[in-house]
Amino acid sequence: MPTSTPTPPTTRTNLDDVRLARAYLLRVAEPPAPHLTGFVTRHGPIAAAERIQADDVPDQVRAETTARRDVDRAEQDMATAAAIGATLLIPEDEAWPAWAFAALDLARARGANWAGQPLAVWARGTADLAISTDEAVAVVGARAATAYGEHIAAEFAHALATAGMTVVSGAAYGVDGAAHRGALAAGGPTVAVLGCGIDVPYPAGHSALLGSIAKSGLIISEYPPGTPPARHRFLVRNRLIAALAAGTLVVEAGRRSGSRNTAATAAALGRVVMAVPGPVTSAMSLGCHELIRSGDAHLVSSVADVIESVGRLGADLATVPPQALRETDGLSDQALRVHEALNRKSGQSVEQIAIKSGIPIERVRATLPGLELTAHAERCETGWRRRSPQPT
Amino acid sequence: MPTSTPTPPTTRTNLDDVRLARAYLLRVAEPPAPHLTGFVTRHGPIAAAERIQADDVPDQVRAETTARRDVDRAEQDMATAAAIGATLLIPEDEAWPAWAFAALDLARARGANWAGQPLAVWARGTADLAISTDEAVAVVGARAATAYGEHIAAEFAHALATAGMTVVSGAAYGVDGAAHRGALAAGGPTVAVLGCGIDVPYPAGHSALLGSIAKSGLIISEYPPGTPPARHRFLVRNRLIAALAAGTLVVEAGRRSGSRNTAATAAALGRVVMAVPGPVTSAMSLGCHELIRSGDAHLVSSVADVIESVGRLGADLATVPPQALRETDGLSDQALRVHEALNRKSGQSVEQIAIKSGIPIERVRATLPGLELTAHAERCETGWRRRSPQPT
To answer: Are A350 and A256 contained in the same domain?
Structure first.
C-alpha cells in the first residue's frame, strides 16, 4: 500500500481532507476533464471541491461537473476501496509519480485536451507507484493475440522484470495478461492500469491475475469504485499507461487496435514507442509493422533492443522546447508550490522552503532536483533559488 | 537472346571486334578491376585490349592484367557460350542496361573500388536486359531460408511479376530460388546473376530452374565460361544484382549474411533497401530486423509496401549532389561519346550527333533524354546541345 511521508498531525489531517476532496473530484467529472483539472490546479483540491459544491465555478468547469455536483460519495468510496485493500493515491503523496505524470500536463499545455494528470488514482497493491515506475516499460497489444504474441509478451516482460524494470499494462486478455504474468514470474513488480473501478473484477477471467498483481505490484484506476468498463474509458486510461512508462512496447496489434492508441499517446507524451515485428502473414502483426514502417515505432527484436531504445528517452526529453510553454507548465501542484516558495535573488535552505511552501521537507528535498533539471531552480551557496527556463 | 540495333555492315563488323575485345578483357582480369575498367573507358575496348597484349599499359593496369595477359580465349569463349545459347552482351548493345549500371560508375567515381560497370556480361535467355530491368526489384536472402522465408519470397516475387516488375536474384538455394520460381509462376521475366561461368551448372540442384529462367528470362554473369563459383565472386556479383534493380528486398538473413552485403551495396548505389520482418524468435529474420532497426532498410510487409518504397527511388536519385563528381562521371562509354559529340553553343540534330559520334542513330535518340535528365544535354530550337551540370 502506498504510504505518505510521516508529517506533523496538522498536515496529516490536512492530507486526509485533501484525499477526501480528491475522491469527490474524481467522481464529479468523467476524466479527462481538462477544465476541472485546471481549476483544481489553480485553487487546490479542497477549495475547488467546495466551490463546485457551491456552484461557484466558471462555466466550463460547471459544464464538466454539474451532472454529478451533488454526488458526494467520497467517504463511501474510501470505505469500498479499503474493503478490498485499496487506497486513494493523491499528488500530495510521496508515492505519486509526479515526474512520470508531468508529461501529461506538458501535453495538455500544448493543447492536448485528452492529456492532463489524473486528479488522483485508486490503488490496490504493495508497490510504491513512484518508485516502481521510475524505470518502467509499458507492454501492450492485442486482446486477440496469437500464441506468438503471448509468448513474446511473456518473454519480454520476464526479461524486463529481471533487468529491474517494471512492466506496466492494462490487465486485458492476450498481450496485457501475458506481460503481467511474465513480469510476475520473474518476481518483478508490475502495474496494471484499469479502465473501470478498482473493485470491478474485469476482465472476469483475470480475477486471479489481478490478485497476484496486487500482491507484489499495483493496480490503479482513476475511476471511482463500481465504475463499469467502457471503450472510451480504456482510451482515457491508455494515457496513464503511456505516461507511467519510459517507453511503450506494442507486441501485437491489428490494423485497428487500441494498442495503437496507446502508442500514439506515448509518442505525444515524448515517450519511446517500440513495436515487435512478426510474420507478415499474421494479421496480428499488421499494426506493429505499420508503426515501424511509418517511423512511429522503433523495431525491437530483443529485450536488449528495448533497453537500448528506452535509453534514448533522456535525449528525447532534453529536446522539449521550453519556449513553447509557460515557465511552470508541466509542474505538479507540489512542484509549483515549491517553485513559488523560491526567491529569485537569494538562496534558501530546504527547511526554509518547506516552511514557506507548507510541503513536507522530504518532498521538498525530492522535488528540487527535478526543478533543477527543468531549469526552474538552481543551487547556490546559500541553498536553492528560483530560475526561469530560458528560451533557447 | 539480346539483339543489337540493326546497323550498317561496317558498324556490325566493328561491333563484332568490340565484342571479341571485351570477351578478352573479361578474362584478362578478375572483376572488379577498377584500373582496367578506367583504362577501357579511356581508350575504348579494342585499343585497350591491344595495348594490354602489347604490355603497353600503366603499372596499375598491368598489375591487374599481367597474369592473364596472354590468355586470349575470346573466340573459344564465344563458341562455348553459343553452344548453350549464350552471347556476350556489351555496353555497345542496345540491350545493355546503361542507366541501371551507371550507378556503379557513380559509386566508383566516389571512391568505391568494388563498384564500376562490368566490361560486358555473358547472357543466356530470351529477355532484353535493358528492358527487363527497367522496373526491377532484387529479391535476395538466406540460402538456409525457413519455410516462411521461401513462402514470402515466392509470394512477393509472384506479385511483383504480376505487377509488371522483373525479379532479379542470384539463383541460389533458399530465398533466391523461391523468388525466381515465384516470378516464373506468374509468367514474368526474371533475371539471375551468377557468381560463376554462365555454363557452370551451379547450384547443382537448380539446373532445371536455370533452364526455366533462360526460357523466359535471362541469366547473366561477368565471369568467363568455365569459371567455378567462389565466395568472393558472389560478393562481386552482388553489385550487379543491386545495380540492376531499383530496390533490393531482403527476405530472410541471418546475422552474418551475404544478403546484407547486397543490401549494403544497394544502399551505396543509392538504391532502396527493404527488408521483410519475421518472428523475432527466428534466427533467419535477425539480419532483416537489424537492417530495419538500424535504419538501413525500410520495413515492407506487403508487395504494396515494396512498390511504394521503390517509388521513392526517383526522389533519392534526384538528391545525388552533382558537384561532388566530375561532370561526366557516371556516364557509360556510349553516353560519353554522345556527350562529346555535342556542341556547347549550337544545337545539332540527332542525325548529326550520330554521324559525329559514330553511335547508331537509335542509340543516340535513346541516350539523349538520359543526358538531359542528368543535365549533360539540353534541347534547343536547333536540336540538342551540351550542358554542364551546375553545382547546386
So the answer is: no
Task: Give the end of a domain, one of A261, A287, A318.
Answer: A318
Whether residue A280 and residue B302 make contact (CB cut-off 8 A), yes or no, is yes
pLDDT of residue A223: 97
**Domain holding B366: CATH number?**
1.10.10
Whole-model pTM?
0.76
Whether the predicted interface score ipTM is above 0.90:
no
User: Could you tell me if A311 and A345 lie in one domain?
Assistant: no
Asked, as a colleague might, if the bond just before A32 is cis with ω within 30 of 0, I would say yes
Q: Answer whether B147 touches A (CB < 8 Å).
A: no
- Are B227 and B122 within 8 A, CB to CB? no
Q: Answer whether residue A106 is part of any domain.
A: no
Q: In B, residues 215-254, which contact A (CB 8 Å cutoff)?
A: none
Tens digits of residue pLDDT in A123-144:
999 999 999 999 999 999 999 9
Digit-coded pLDDT (tens) for A361-388 = 777 887 887 777 677 888 887 888 887 6
Count of alpha carbons within 13 angstroms of residue A180, beta-carbon side: 25
In this structure, what C-alpha cell is assigned to residue A202?
Answer: 474485469
Residues in chain A closer than 8 A to B278 (CB atoms): 277-280
Is B342 a member of any domain?
yes
B305 — contact with chain A (CB < 8 Å)? Answer: yes
In tens, the pLDDT along B352-368 reads: 787 676 677 777 887 88
CA angle A129, A198, A249 (to 5 degrees): 55
Question: Is residue B48 in a domain?
Answer: no
* The pLDDT value given to residue B1: 43
pLDDT value at B213 more than 80: yes
Say if the Cβ atoms of B277 and A278 lie within 8 Å. yes
Set of cell numbers at residue A172: 486485458
CB contact under 8 Å between B277 and A280, yes or no, is: yes
What is the extent of the structural domain holding B353?
Answer: 327-386
Report the first-to-last Cα separation within chain B, whole angstroms: 42
Whether cis (ω within 30° of 0) applies to the bond prior to B203 is yes
Domain total in chain A:
2
Alpha carbon distance A239, A261 (integer Å): 9
A31-84 pLDDT per residue, tens: 999 999 999 999 999 999 999 999 999 999 999 998 899 999 999 999 999 999
Rg (CA), chain A: 21
Query: Checking DSSP bridges between strand A383-386 and strand A377-380, what pairing results, if any?
Result: antiparallel
CATH of the domain at A198: 3.40.50.450
Task: Report pLDDT for A76.
Answer: 97
Cell 602489347, residue? B54
Q: What number is the average pLDDT over the span B275-281?
A: 98
A279 touches chain B (CB under 8 A): yes
Asked if residue A15 belongs to a domain, the reply is no
* The C-alpha cell that represents A276 in the structure block: 515487435
A36 φ/ψ angles, rounded to the nearest 5 degrees: -60, -45
Tell if the CB–CB gap between A277 and B298 is shorter than 8 Å.
Answer: no
Cell 492529456, located at residue: A115
B272 CB within 8 Å of a chain A CB? no
Residue A210, C-alpha cell as written in the block: 489481478
Decide which of A318, A345, A366 is a domain's last residue. A318
Bin B141: left if φ > 0, else alpha if -120 < ψ < 50, else beta.
left
Average the pLDDT over B138-147 and give the result.
96
Mutation target for B interface from A139, A152, A273, A280: give the one with most B CBs within 10 A. A280
Confidence of residue B11 (pLDDT cuts 50, 70, 90): low
Find all residues with CB under 8 Å of A202, minimum gap 6, and list them: A194, A196, A228, A229
